[in-house]
Amino acid sequence: MELESPLNPGSTIGIIGGGQLGRMLAMAARQMDYRTIVLDPDSNCPAGQVADEVIRSEYSDIKASSELAALADVVTYEFENVDADSVSSAEKHKPVRPSSSVLRTTQNRFHEKKALLEAGIPVANFRKVDSLRDLEDAASVLGYPMVLKTATQGYDGKGQSIINGEHDLGASYDRLNARNVELIVEQFVSFKAEVSTICARTADGMTATFDPSENIHRNHILDTSIVPARIEEAVTDKARIIATDIAEKLDVIGLIAVEMFVTKDNDILVNELAPRPHNSGHYTMDGCDTSQFEQLVRVLAGMPITLPKLHSPTVMVNLLGEIWEDTGGNPDWQRALEMPGVNLHLYGKSAA
After folding, report:
1. Which residues contact 212 (CB under 8 A, 6 or more apart)?
2. CA–CA dist 77, 25 (Å, integer)
3. CB 99 within 8 A of CB 118
4. Does residue 220 carry a pLDDT above 90?
5. For residues 167 and 170, what is the distance between their CA atoms, to the nearest angstrom?
6. 12-96 belongs to which CATH class?
7. Positions of the region Disordered (predicted)?
8. pLDDT at 3 over 80
9. Mean of per-residue pLDDT scores for the chain
10. Contacts of 120 (CB under 8 A, 6+ apart)
């Protein structure tokens, strides 16, 4: 379903999911005078604290998603682990950006890798795993080490197991197979940097990419993003081109965040996709003239997008729950904000 014309300020954006990304999207929408309605099981979710209205229900509630679509002029989702059938239901009533087709592709690592491979996008070698025998056969082709992953419901390193040799095969397979989801195994990539590039694409095919961020993870969770990424200019350009290529070939309308490995030979292999704003893109809120959230609001409303410009080199540090634990619930925000150029953004979560 397409927008008949651009949505004027005062129109309503429906957001499936009420986490921090939905919160920041709602705040960007409010800045441009768009209303937001959030669908989430928790009425006090981070996005619900700033949205105009909250529909409290499970993501799988098709009746609730249809209600959201009836009240909104356009619908999006703030993370990909929402119910695809529910999103498809909303799509019958109002435009959903990105589409439910893009969502279904990116919800499953095997489907995602297959789609990227068919589109000519470089990825690590991979195999689908339906049995221990499949995993053993994959090892003979991919070699060690390799990474066994759940095809769905995996994030922040969850649902993954590194297999260093034949002795790891059985235990790794049993542990992940117990989750009763599809499995995929990938060749381990020895990389010198992890980067992500966010591309916005409008309904008429206009694209704009943000500067790639260099991402440093701790315990598989994003810890720090550095922009500009400390990679060669030619690699930066290649990352932008790949992100744009993916947005076009998957027919994304909205945002697509592309996580990539940069190898020691300066080749790029795409690791994962996220059809939404991305935590590594938080730097755009203060580091760029247009944030990833405003860019998405513009796409949702059918408004023009522009190529974002970086104000200055920027570092984003992800604050995790341990900061509150280590300080008895009272981090020293004053000390942080004494530093020139520091901006503080909190998620509004009651627990982390």
Report:
1. 195, 196, 197, 227, 228, 229, 231, 236, 239, 240, 260
2. 10
3. no
4. no
5. 7
6. alpha beta
7. 86-105
8. no
9. 95
10. 245
Mean per-residue pLDDT, 71-86: 96
Distance CA 36, CA 25 (A): 9
Residue 161 to residue 163: CA distance in whole angstroms: 6
Contacts of 67 (CB under 8 A, 6+ apart): 55
74-77: strand order across its sheet: 53-56, 35-40, 12-16, 74-77
What is the second-level CATH architecture of the domain 125-187?
A: 2-Layer Sandwich (3.30)
Q: Measured at the alpha carbon of residue 65, what is the angle toward residues 62 and 66, in degrees to the nearest 5? A: 85
Ranges of CATH 3.30.1490.20 domains, the chain: 125-187
Supply angle C-alpha 95, 121, 295, rounded to 5. 40
pLDDT digits (tens, 9 = 90+) for 15-66: 999 999 999 999 999 999 999 999 999 999 999 999 999 999 999 999 999 9
Q: Is the pLDDT of residue 321 over 90?
A: no
Token pair 């023009």 in the structure block, residue? 304
Q: What's the CATH number of domain 191-327, 3.40.190.10, 3.30.470.20, 3.40.50.2300, 3.40.630.30? A: 3.30.470.20
Q: What is the largest CA-CA distance in the chain?
A: 61
Select from 304, 303, 312, 245 the least CA-distant residue to 273.
245
Would you place residue 328 in the very low, low, confident or very high pLDDT band (cuts 50, 70, 90)?
Answer: confident
Mean of the pLDDT values across residues 257-269?
A: 97
> How far is the C-alpha of 38 from the C-alpha of 294, rounded, in Å?
17
The pLDDT of residue 350? 75
Pairing assessment for the beta strands 314-317 and 146-150 based on DSSP bridges = unpaired
- Residues 6 or more apart whose CB falls under 8 angstroms from that of 23 comprise 46, 47, 49, 50, 347, 348
Range(s) of the chain covered by CATH 3.30.470.20: 191-327
